[in-house]
Amino acid sequence: MSEPTRASPSLFTRLARGVYRHWKAVLGGGAVLLALAVWGLLQGGHLTTGTIEGIESSRAEALARGAAAGSNDQTLAVIFHHDAWTADDPRFSQAVASVLERVARLPEVEAVVSPVGAPEAFRARFVAATGHDLLALVRLKGGEREATAAFPTVRAALEDPRLETTLTGKVAFLHALNTLLEHDLLRAELLSFPLALLVLLWVFRTVVAAMLPLVVGGLAVLCGVAGVLLLSRYTNMAQYTLNVVSLIGLGVAIDYSLFIVSRFRSELADGLTTEQALERTLDTAGRAVAFSGLAVTVGLGGLLFFRGSYLSAMGLGGALVVAFAVLFALTVLPALLSWLGPRVNRGRLPFARVERRGGLWHALATWVMRHPWWVLLPTLTLLLAMGLPFRRLELAATDITALPRGTEARQGAQTLARLFPREAATRVLVAVEFPSGNPLTPERAGALFDASRRFASLPGVVGVESAVDLGPGMDRATVQRMAGAPPQALPAELQAARAAYLTGNVAVLQVLTSFAPSSREARELVRTLREERSVGDGRFVVGGQTATDVDAAAFVKQHTPAAVGFVMGMTCVVLFVLLRSVLLPLKALLMNLLSLAGSFGALVWIFQEGHLQGLLRFEPGPIEPSLPILLFCALFGLSMDYEVLLLSRIREEWLRTGDNTHAVAEGLERTGGLITSAAAIMVAVFAAFSLASVVVVKAMGLGMAIAVALDATLVRVLIVPSMMRLMGDLNWWGPGHSGRARARMKQREVVP
Known about the structure:
Elements: H1 11-21, H2 23-43, E1 47-48, H3 56-64, E2 75-81, H4 90-104, E3 109-113, H5 120-123, E4 133-140, H6 144-157, E5 164-168, H7 170-204, H8 207-231, E6 237-238, H9 241-269, H10 274-301, H11 310-330, H12 332-340, H13 360-370, H14 372-387, H15 408-419, H16 421-424, E7 426-433, H17 442-456, E8 461-465, H18 476-484, H19 492-501, E9 502-503, E10 506-513, H20 520-529, E11 534-535, E12 538-543, H21 545-579, H22 583-608, H23 613-616, H24 626-657, H25 660-689, H26 695-727, H27 739-747
Parallel strand pairs: 1-6
Antiparallel strand pairs: 2-4, 2-5, 3-4, 7-10, 7-12, 8-10, 9-10, 11-12
Helix pairs in contact: 1-10, 2-8, 2-12, 6-7, 7-8, 7-9, 7-25, 8-9, 8-11, 9-10, 9-11, 9-24, 9-25, 10-11, 10-21, 10-24, 13-25, 14-22, 14-26, 17-18, 20-21, 21-22, 21-24, 22-24, 22-26, 24-25, 24-26, 24-27, 25-26
């Protein structure tokens, strides 16, 4: 009988040989990428808050942009206070006037409105009942990005030793949010690296091996963040994209490195040389890392379906950092292992133990194989019960309540609501566009007056501000008569009102409501306003914060089916290529959905319904609209890490023996400890982000930590093995699992 032909080396074997022979060049290339990343970080970027193009609220903001009262997004509310001076004291007025004159001269400032020197009727709006507080409005030039960048300069110019000054408004909120996000990112990284190191030391019991994943993780995050900053110069990148990139990049890079270093040490322990161990490692664990990275990239690729929004750019940034994690895990890490060889085990710790067969994972694997139904049914029930709160999900964009109570912007909002309730009321923007010409002809003024009164009669509305709401007691006929009068014949206050609420062929109305911006009642008010669009021969669109919440939720809902279908479909394809099985990819999808359901239910239970708010220090409220789909796309891919590792090892054993029950038990025994260790690292990294000050980052970190913990314990260690035990040889139904496939496996001498 002739000797069987040896199979040609795989791609990963050839990669291992190339890295082993040229490890110095590979490390040199890594150093060049590191230098470029540092250079990119020093160049900085142009990060913004999350925006969505093409939604109705954005169109309303664009139509009203030319009107002074069209939008409050670039307007700062400034409250001046003095304990002794009153509003009638000339010293108070002079001090405020001198500050505002200085501010008005700044190139970043477009206009200043204050009670100083204003008519008495107007002045009353901006003087608090306390008599010791004055309100001024400072409108900044440019869009949101430019106004936020100008905030520190304007804030410094508003300081005066004689006065106590408090600022609030969207610009102040965004500046505080960006500052907190930067602080949260730095704190999370400072916490996550030591936590990850502790887990790695516990897993490897040697200092050298434990440090290697941190090196790869640091490289991946640095390059990923630098890439995001570079992309932010060409596309809209939200500020907390950096947090997402660091969160995902650090977790996957350390996990991938853990898989490779563990397999390399195992192969060395079996007596292989450094080169042989590296070849075997990349042909097994390296293959799993490549497919895991592809699965995570596919998951994040689902965010590209949300084109025109910051979610699309966030998916691009996340995919970039995962690509760097895979690149460094398959090149720089093997180069370091080639250099170290057996020295990877140096720095053995006093509590090091000798690895041996048997023990906890052998006992667990044996028990699961003997009692699959007793494992499967209770675990499934628990996960489904955890997911039930997700049915009560409510969505709303991040608002000022996301800031800690001690921040100036939030304290200013509370002070504004207490002293100037009308100015602090929730505002719904209505922009009426007429076909052409003057938006305030007598006929159109009458239609605007009717619309204003219709809006004012809606539940929760406390007032309407517009060019036809010029004072109490004015009827429709008076408004029409004044609309027909020459502008120069009108009083100064009415001329100012026209300038504030009219721009081109657009008339602007501000509908004031007592409802909180993110409340269900405010969202219902927006929907009611949109039921009847006509105002004379014009039509209107609705904007403002609440309308943006409604539109963002609708945008996410509209694009979610395509994104979810893409992620699930492509994940099936990736797993099919890896496993050559028809049923295992479908089972993997079901397992991912189970772990996600538990995580989403926990998010609603904690952050929306307020459980654990004392422990986690946050204010409960609706969930950020982008958070569920962001978590779905990120976690769907991350869950594949453990699925690919577990199933790859089970498949190796099945191809070797053809015994499904033995293969499942052996795969669980060999990978169970590694999966839970890798999950412990990810949970430590994600938990560091759950300590953030900003609620959306806190929710993201905790949600991902819960999902990974559930996935690595209940799902991969209990549900997956028990289901595979019950499915038997049906697990391997598909092309590539014939006797010849097992023969090829034996020829390549791939051992577990």
